[in-house]
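pasting for ref
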Amino acid sequence: MRKEDFYFDLPEELIAQDPLEDRSSSRLLVLDKETGEVEHRVFKDVIDYLEPGDCLVINETKVIPARLFGAKVGTDAKIEVLLLKRGENDTWETLVRPGKKAKIGTRISFGEGLLVGEVVDVVEEGNRLIRFEYEGIFEEILDQLGQMPLPPYITHQLEDKNRYQTVYAKHSGSAAAPTAGLHFTPELLQKIEEKGIEIARVTLHVGLGTFRPVKVENILEHHMHSEFYMVSNEAAEKINRAKDNGKRVFCVGTTSCRTVESAADENGRMKECSGWTEIFIYPGYEFKVLDCLITNFHLPESTLVMLVSALAGREQVLAAYDEAIKERYRFFSFGDAMIIK
């Protein structure tokens, strides 16, 4: 299986630069994975495809304002730091630009010394381990100094930080939003629950590896980054109940999908657990839990397109993407959505 098998040509003007005013008014392409048939709807119509007893799995991770702009102590050299993974003793794995200015021992000041970081190690792929010094509460300082880590294909400034956050975001730790969830409003979620659909809340902290391109031609040689996930006993019971009753599990986004597929045993049973996952889902994968997927439109040759293709078949997915391009759907993080049923 080759990377180029998942290529499609996307006009740049279809990359959404700004979120819509009404989250749930995005367009919705509905793909039947059995027949390949496509329908065109509006996102709030997603409720029409959910039936009482089904389980909707959402990812409660919260994006942290992980992009920091500082200067090398003692110089005017500007340095940008992106927080990726929290370690112990106020140490974070980070992505630093420009890396050559961040040798071990380099000290970086943010917000005129409100936060100071020291590079203590260089790790995999050139990432830096930075230990931070500050007075007060780290999260409050980060909220004051940090910016939302928007993907590189979004060039517009985000006016409202909350628009790159789901309405149900709860547990801080992501370097990127679980973007399929951006379409939900509190009102839509309430209507879904009132219809008798159970909502299972899980957490997977999204790493920037989500956006990292596949660099190998043979996709089987690609190594996924690791991400931390948590499944509560309540969420596990809701998912198991839907399965026991012959109902369907709808995952909101590839992150919820990767969470349940990582946490399930070989029989597709869920239990309370947490851990790190490097799961890579591509065509040929047998889904243990997920039946249907609500997702956005993803980058060509990305691991996310490969995951979607595992569920609905590569040719059907690429045909649906061609249809979306023809119909001028909006792509990527702030774009429109699709449901694979």
